[in-house]
Amino acid sequence: MKRSAVILLLLFAAMGVNAQDPQFEVNLEGFSAFGSARVTNLGILGGGAVSDFDYSDVRGSAFWDDHWNTAMFYTSTNSILVGAVKLNLYANEIWYQDQNGKPLVVKPGVVKKIVFYKANDTSTILTQFIYMETIGEGPNHYVQILNDGKTQLLKLTSIKLYKGSPDVLNGKEEYGFSNKADYYVFHNHEIKKLKSLTRDEVLTTLQASSGDEAWLKQTSNKLKNENDYIAFFNHYNKQH
Are strands 175-187 and 58-59 parallel, antiparallel or unpaired? Predict the structure, then answer.
């Protein structure tokens, strides 16, 4: 993703941008603007203990990415760069490592925005998440922003724990994680949940023009997967 991304849900005063500290104009209803004052004290995260639930015994993954990545956290007043972070979408928890490598959990409600970098390379942004309490019916409310621009595709991933068939060899119950993605479109200063991520649903929601459909044909974009839709949203923002 580009180093600057904009989502305008309502109007907020623009915040400053630093080349190594990407900022986004974001307004979540009921929240104040995100903080830009850089701090280094991990104590502001109110780190709590990670539960003793054994995730290794469960099939699948509870995390957006199983790897530890560097991330910038934004609270309502500050921003802080953290060297090792994972987002637990099952428990709606942000995990991070302290200076001694001990895994901790961010106090709920503290972090409003997360910008993930590739491993420890802060020049490469992997993705960003915004906390939207009013979106989603499950425990997770961290919404992934899939593209830049004034019209954006948003993704909310819900992960549930299910009980599988017993393992007759060792007599243990088997469990696994299942995930479901809901997509939303931010367009004309409104957020609309898509019934499904399909060609007709997206083109109708965006009121796509004949030129947009011609672009899809010219680029052989069949809108079959998430990357196809991201490419189309990038095109749409350039044309509208």
Answer: parallel
What's the token pair of residue 215?
A: 């672009």
Spatial CA neighbour of 22 closest among 115, 127, 126, 120: 115
Tokens of 225: 């997967």
At 222, the amino acid letter reads K
The residues, any chain, with a CB within 8 Å of residue 204's CB and separated by 6 or more, are none
State the pairing for strand pair 113-118/103-105: unpaired
Cβ-contact 64, 89 below 8 angstroms: yes
User: Please, which pLDDT band fits residue 174 given cuts at 50, 70 and 90?
Assistant: confident
Is the pLDDT confidence value at 90 over 60?
Answer: yes
Evaluate whether 116 touches 151 at the Cβ level (below 8 Å). Answer: no
DSSP state letters, 98-117: -TTS-EEEPPTTS--EEEEE
User: From the centroid of its chain, how far is CA 48?
Assistant: 22
Structure tokens at 42: 């991990």
Pairing, β 121-131 against β 37-38: unpaired
Nearest to 175 by CA among 166, 188, 185, 187: 166
**pLDDT tens-place string over residues 100-129:** 999 999 999 899 999 999 988 899 999 999
Question: Residue 113 pairs with which residues in a beta bridge?
Answer: 74, 130
Residue with tokens 């909310």: 156
Task: Please say whether the beta carbons of 188 and 157 come within 8 A.
Answer: no
Closest CA to 9 of 145, 122, 103: 145
